[in-house]
Design goal:
The chain is mostly beta strands. It has ten helices and 60 strands.
């Protein structure tokens, strides 16, 4: 077998030449010995040559020599070494052939380590390593101990037991590095990233441990928005080094501005003041949110650079939302009704004392006051003596009308003040599809304001109208991210005003003292919210002296008074299950009335009327989002009026005693909303069933579209009903003056309306609407109120039709400015019959005159102007109303009269000091001191009653 020929390169230095010459000589001597078959001598010469100048060819010859000597393990080892670094294919083939010859003569152990390059010792270290991994070891049969070592790693000892010749075993060994640990900690650097120069680490964010090889290392700690921190750390093998780095914040600034000052600025979820706000922040990307009640919140991401100042200017769009139109929050433009909103800013500026004062001047809305109750009329439906029972007043969507007459309460009989009110929503037109009875001409929803402070309160005092003094106290708390509570209490006392009542021809005019017009009122209310669960409670009492001689009482008698007390508790759950929203509403309500009517002894003396009403209700509603463009609403409700007690007596006898009457009401409804591009169609119906008269079905259809950018058109058709009240059905005095009317049918109204709004700019909008209504089965009185012709209620055969036009232009609230103008034209007629031709002709019935209490023209102009920056604001409201006809509507009565037109100017100055939380208002209502009259019902001896003259408004409130 041929030996490999050694080629010894000649280095440049003399010493290198000497080594090469010696190695060459040894190689030749070894070759000669091998050829002479003196393999031991040949081995000796080749080993010496390889020590002088290592060479793969010489290594190959060493292996051949071992093979000839029968020392196969050593031969195998050197053949393996001869392969290392060999690139010549012929030579590699020769080596592999040699290894194949030895397969059956050695036991092979393949040693592979991770990482490679570890030294392999066979049994003991003093003889030196047998090679470096990866390495195949050729061994004699037997058992062996392998020692594997690599600098920086823990040594490994591996036992190879009873390996036989021709057997191959593969050993894969993972070497554990010798490490020390560096522990980084510190609250100021929590979340920072750690890097070690020259060492690859898994992600490490403080607080954390870093495992690195022993020695000196440079640690670098980095966190966005901070300057990097570097330090030199000496790491001991298997030791622990503690490092507490400190990071210096890199900062920039952002200036957040909005058109509306006082908007809350939140950065990364935390409040940072109010606009305009200059905030210094760590560098990096931050989430900025700007919000203000009544406006759409704006969210932006802003990158802050070191040392820079970024300017963030946002435009807050007015948030015109309404709940009452569909019983869910939606934009006014999308609501399937004609809607007006009185926002919080207006309530704060004008400090309206009552609901009736707040809605004065809205399109199609007017009020009157007979010194017992104030009432509202909508679009010509303002029947005298109705106690507002064709208008439904809600508090946070809960009906507050009583269950005796169905009265709506809009003055101090509704609530002591409006300080807890966020906004007032006024929905014109029928709403029975949502609320059932009383939502006949319109709906007023009083939306209370939520808690806005973690823990705080308010205390206020005010003087308004005719010597009305009020005090109030409110407390509120935010209990968590999804929970809050507020509660308030208020009291009022009205001194009344002196009245001069005209005589009726047989009696002279009389002057009524102020005390005969006085009142006392008190309110306690609150609301608790937790996620989707809400509880609200309300209690109000109002005792009013009646100075006018109503119901033929003695004018000015201090005993003439009535007391209305109302209370309710409502709990609602509104969870969401994917595309299905559920509302469950449970409520308990109570109403009590006490009336005192002093008359001459011959007429019965002091009459006392009493009513007690209590009822419970349950409603379940589901809203299903069938798709992005289809929403379905369905549900039902039931009410059980378990207490309906009427009692009346005078000094002669008990006139009425009905303690055991009950009333049950049930309803089912469904609605569907379809949306497509710029159009929406909303349709639905509600069926109400009463234990008193039967049932009533009331549909509503609305088509809403945006025919062009900035335009919004609504076509509205709806029907509503009013159930005859307990009073109308059953009140009587035994036939002395009034008898029961149990056969009454519900009133019904059909309404048609077209409304169009055009937005001239982001803040200015003009709108107009035309409407027509027809009311059938109108409940009216018949009889003279005598024993021979007692008073009773009947359904009129003559429908009541109204028609009108409403125009509006509005500059929305921006930077403290507001301007709004309204004009309403309306007319009403009693029709001859229910035929459509009679409605279209709009001609009056021959035996009836003009409809009472319908002002044909109403104009309103109101505005706000900021003074002294935004700390002081001037508000002004001018309302002009044409005269109305009085109650004598039939040709058989005395001639019908008409009141005169009048103009009312209210001017108010409002101020707010944010540092102290002090808010104040001062102003005049009816600054012209106009003397004007409004018609009143047959319950009063007067045709019309003088309304309030000039009154002073003073109000102050402190937040804490």
């Amino acid at each position: 077998m041929a030996l490999a020929t050694a080629t010894v390169l000649a280095p440049r230095t003399a010493r290198a030449n000497d080594l090469a010459d010696e190695a060459e000589l040894l190689f030749q001597l070894g070759r000669e010995a091998f050829e002479a078959e003196d393999y031991r001598l040949a081995l000796e010469r080749f080993l010496a040559c390889n020590r002088l100048v290592p060479n793969r060819n010489v290594t190959f010859n060493v292996a051949r020599s071992y093979e000839q000597l029968g020392r196969y393990p050593e031969a195998y080892r050197h053949f393996t070494r001869a392969l290392i670094g060999e690139s010549d294919e012929d030579r590699r083939r020769h080596v592999h052939d040699a290894l194949q010859r030895l397969i059956g003569k050695v036991a092979v152990v393949e040693v592979i380590t991770q990482p490679p390059g570890a030294a392999i010792y066979l049994g003991r270290k003093d003889l030196g390593p047998t090679g470096a991994t990866p390495q195949s070891l050729g061994l004699a049969a037997g058992s062996y101990t392998l020692i594997v070592e690599r600098p920086g790693y823990q040594p490994r000892v591996v036992e190879v037991d009873d390996i036989a010749l021709g057997e191959t075993r593969r050993l894969e060994i993972d070497l554990d590095p010798i490490l020390g640990r560096v522990t980084l900690h510190g609250d100021s650097v929590r979340g920072a990233t750690v890097r070690v120069a020259g060492v690859t680490l898994e992600e490490c964010r403080v607080p954390c441990d870093v495992a690195v090889p022993p020695g000196e290392h440079v640690l670098r700690v980095e966190r966005e928005g901070y300057r990097p921190y570097e330090t030199l750390v000496e790491v001991r093998a298997e030791g622990r080094t503690w490092v507490r780095p400190t990071l210096e914040v890199q900062r920039g600034a952002i200036l957040v501005e909005a058109e509306e000052s006082g908007a809350l600025v939140e950065i990364d979820g935390a409040p940072h003041g109010y606009t305009p706000a200059l905030v210094r922040l760590p560098i990096g990307v931050h989430d900025v949110r700007v919000s203000l009640r009544g406006y759409v919140p704006v969210e932006r991401q802003v990158r802050v650079e070191a040392g820079s100042e970024e300017r963030v200017r946002v435009e807050l769009a007015r948030l015109e939302e309404v709940n009452a139109a569909s019983r869910r929050t939606e934009a006014v433009a999308d609501a399937p009704s004609s809607v007006s909103i009185i926002p919080r800013e207006e309530l704060l500026l004008f400090a309206y004392p009552t609901i009736a004062e707040a809605v004065r001047g809205l399109p199609g809305v007017y009020a009157w006051d007979d010194r017992a109750y104030a009432s509202l009329g909508f679009r010509g439906l303002g029947r005298l003596g109705s106690y507002g029972n064709r208008v439904l007043v809600l508090q946070d969507e809960h009906p507050t009308n009583d269950n005796w007459v169905g009265s709506s309460y809009v003055s101090y009989d509704a609530r002591t003040d409006l300080a807890d009110v966020e906004r007032i929503e006024v929905v014109r037109g029928p709403g029975s599809v949502l609320y059932g009875t009383n939502a006949f001409a319109g709906v007023v929803n009083v939306v209370t304001r939520p808690a806005t402070r973690d823990l705080g309160g308010e205390v206020g005092v005010s003087a308004v109208h005719d010597g009305v003094g009020r005090v109030r106290l409110r407390g509120e708390a935010i209990l968590g991210e999804d929970s809050q509570v507020w509660i308030s209490a208020a009291g009022a006392r009205g001194q009344g005003r002196e009245l001069v009542l005209d005589g009726d021809g047989s009696t002279p005019a009389s002057t009524i003292p102020r005390s005969a017009d006085a009142f006392d009122a008190g309110t306690v209310q609150g609301r608790y919210t937790w996620r989707w669960l809400t509880a609200q409670w309300f209690a109000h009492s109002y005792e009013k002296h009646q100075p006018t001689g109503w119901f033929e009482t003695l004018p000015g008698d201090p005993r003439a008074r009535q007391r209305d007390s109302r209370a309710f508790v409502e709990v609602r759950a509104e969870p969401t299950f994917g595309a299905l929203q559920s509302l469950t509403r449970v409520h308990l309500n109570h109403y009590r009335y006490d009336g005192f009517f002093p008359r001459e002894v011959a007429a019965g003396g002091l009459e006392v009327d009493r009513f007690r009403g209590s009822w419970v209700g349950l409603e379940q509603r589901f809203v299903y989002d069938a798709s992005e463009n289809v929403q379905v609403t369905f549900g039902g409700e039931g009410q059980h009026h378990f207490q309906v007690e009427q009692f009346a007596r005078d000094e002669r006898a008990i006139l009425l005693d009905e303690p055991d009457r009950t009333l049950r009401v049930g309803a089912a409804y469904g609605m569907i909303d379809l949306r497509r591009d710029r159009f929406r169609v909303s349709g639905g119906a509600r069926l109400d069933a009463y234990s008193t008269f039967g049932s009533s079905l009331n549909p509503r259809v609305a088509v809403i579209g945006q025919p062009y950018a900035g335009g919004n058109t609504k076509l509205l058709v709806g029907k509503a009903f009013r159930a005859p009240s307990i009073y109308e059905l059953y009140y009587n005095d035994g036939g002395f003056t009034q008898v029961a009317s149990p056969g009454l049918e519900p009133e019904s109204v059909l309404s048609l309306e077209v409304e169009h709004a055009h937005r001239l700019s982001q803040t200015v909008q003009v709108s107009g609407s035309v409407f027509a209504t027809r009311t059938t089965d109108l409940i009216v009185t018949r009889g003279e109120g005598t024993a021979t012709q007692p008073l009773s209620y009947v359904n009129s055969p003559h429908p009541l039709a109204t028609a009108g036009l409403e125009l509006s232009v509005r500059r929305e609230w921006r930077q403290g400015w507001m301007l709004e103008g309204q004009y309403t034209l309306q007319a009403a007629r009693f029709l001859e019959d229910e035929r459509m031709s009679s409605w279209l002709a709009f001609q009056s019935a021959e035996e009836l005159r003009r409809v009472a209490n319908v002002p044909p023209h109403m104009i309103a102009l109101k505005g706000a102007v900021p003074l002294l920056g935004r700390a002081l604001t001037l508000g002004s409201r001018l309302t002009v109303q044409a005269g109305s006809h009085d109650r004598f509507e039939t040709v058989l009565e005395e001639p019908q009269g008409r009141t005169e037109a009048f103009a009312l100017w209210d001017v108010v100055v409002s101020g707010y000091e944010a540092r102290t939380g002090l808010r104040w208002n001062a102003g005049l209502y009816n600054a012209f001191d106009s003397t004007y009259l409004l018609p009143v019902s047959h319950e009063l001896p007067q045709r019309a009653l003088v309304q309030r003259g000039r009154t002073l408004l003073l109000s102050t409130e402190l937040e804490f």
